[in-house]
Prior knowledge:
single chain, 3 helices
Amino acid sequence: xxxxxxxxxxxxxxxxxxxxDTVRNPFSGEEYxxxxxxxxxxxxxxGAEYVLNAPHYQDHERLGKLSKEFDKAIDWFRKANPKAYMxxxx
Length: 90
């Protein structure tokens, strides 16, 4: 479990959770305890991943913006908690 609070960046417009939770990697079954900020970013990453991979979504302007935010979110998460990143997202 991580105990460090990682401030969410100003560009982040997703939900800001007040508490963390345990997240399970659906492929490996491994679990990791995330603090509120990490969980907020993790959920944004997974939601963006879903939209970016949806073949029926055709708003290319929004997809471009979302893709850039997704890349920034991955970078933030990788730096904020490398172990959780390797467990849940890599």
